Amino acid sequence: MTRHLDIDLLRTFVAIAETRTLGRAAGKIGRTQAAVSMQVKKLEAMLEQPLLNRTGRGVVLTMHGERLLGHALVILRHHDAAVADISGAGLSGTVRFGCPDDYATAFLPHILRSFAGRHPQVFVEVVCAPTPRLKERLRKHALDLALISTTDAEDKASVIRHEPLVWVGNRHDDAVSHEPLQLALSDPDTLDHSAACEALDAVKRPYRVAYASGSISGLLAVVRSGQAIAVLTQAAVPDDLQILAPGKRLPKLPVVGLTVKFDLKSPPALVAEFAEHLRKVLPAL
Predict the structure, then answer these.
(1) Alpha carbons 59 and 35: distance in angstroms, whole number
(2) Rounded CA gap, 134 and 145, in Å?
(3) How far apart are CA 96 and CA 270, in angstroms?
(4) Which tens digit of pLDDT belongs to each residue from 48-81?
């Protein structure tokens, strides 16, 4: 017997997964809680698997529910993109976009403003995080696409912008003279962290990672205090901090590239349009 996943049932299921209660899901899709409950039972009966576990605080997805959620999100994105494309209604919907923290202030306002001018019915949901965390979200289909930092030699053909990594310090403190050198770096699996450590190891300069965090605001706070220096992409350096010139005490750092990665091999039209916008706009910023 052929089984078909009904689009309305999938929308209800996704609403439940996002809100974690039947009541809030019902309000989100404009149905009664009883109707939502019936739709879940219908979906579970069709798939012959339990999808939700009820708890005192709401519902949690079962293992089968988590698996269905990944498929449901993909199906709905393709469905909505197809309807908008064929009906001529123009692009509308939501794009879940990931951006490395250090590019958010420098690039995001212009990227979002210029895209909204062309596609006012599209909502861009932005997640800012270090590149390794964005890659994890892509693998879990929690993002549609993301800007990813790479080494200059890696994935060279798809790089749309190059940015040098630079040493950054407080304008009023001589943190470079500290022995060992005090560093404020991102998570150990990020490019700035590995680039700083490898460069200093190569010249045998003693150093200590005094502060490590995935939050760029936290790193900048430490640098502003004069307690350590950091490594940022050049575009991300705030005006109140200074770029420290490389020399005998500070080795030169590598150049990194920015490329676009998707959660799907064939992204929907809406996601592909946003990616094309990134490729056109980002090199000129």
Answers:
(1) 16
(2) 9
(3) 11
(4) 999 999 888 889 999 999 999 989 988 887 887 7
Specify the pairing of strand 241-244 against strand 145-151: unpaired
Q: What is the mean pLDDT of the chain?
A: 88
Rounded Cα distance, 13 and 73, in Å: 10
Condensed to tens digits (0 to 9), the pLDDT of residues 174-220 reads 778 888 999 999 989 999 999 999 999 999 999 999 898 888 888 99
How many Å is the maximal CA-CA distance in the chain?
74
Instruction: Determine the CATH number of domain 162-254.
Output: 3.40.190.10
CATH topology of domain 88-161+257-284: D-Maltodextrin-Binding Protein; domain 2 (3.40.190)
Burial 201-222 (b: 16+ CB within 10 A, else e): eeeeeebebbbeeeebeebbeb
The single-letter code of the amino acid at 119 is H
Q: Output the pLDDT for position 85.
A: 65
With a cut of 90, say whether residue 253 has pLDDT above it. Answer: yes
Residue type, 128: C
For residue 257, report the phi and psi dihedrals to the nearest 5 degrees. -115, 155
Give 101's Cβ-side CA count (13 Å radius): 20
Integer angstrom CA distances of residue 246 from 5, 42, 152, 191, 197? 59, 65, 19, 18, 15
**pTM metric for this prediction:** 0.66
| Residue range 7-86 in CATH 1.10.10.10 | yes
Q: Report yes or no: 219 and 131 within 8 Å, Cβ to Cβ.
A: no
End-to-end CA distance of the chain: 55
Mean pLDDT of 241-259: 90
